[in-house]
Amino acid sequence: MIPEDHYEKIMMYLNLSPKEANKLATSTGEFSLKQYNEVHQFFNEKKIDIHDIEPSQFNYRDVDKNKIEKTLNDQ
Hints:
Blueprint: H1 4-15, H2 18-23, H3 33-45, H4 60-63, H5 68-74
């Protein structure tokens, strides 16, 4: 499992065509062509299928090493 917000971003990158990716603005920091390429490279070269990865119920900010204990205690 990976944080839900990271899973959503990976899925966004995987569902974009190269043509669409080149049209997206990168100045806001919401999209990175470098990350887009890294995600595609990772799933093309590794033996991990996107269907082997599941989103957790938490976002990255909830499971950061400084917050994970509080998050688990709150559950």
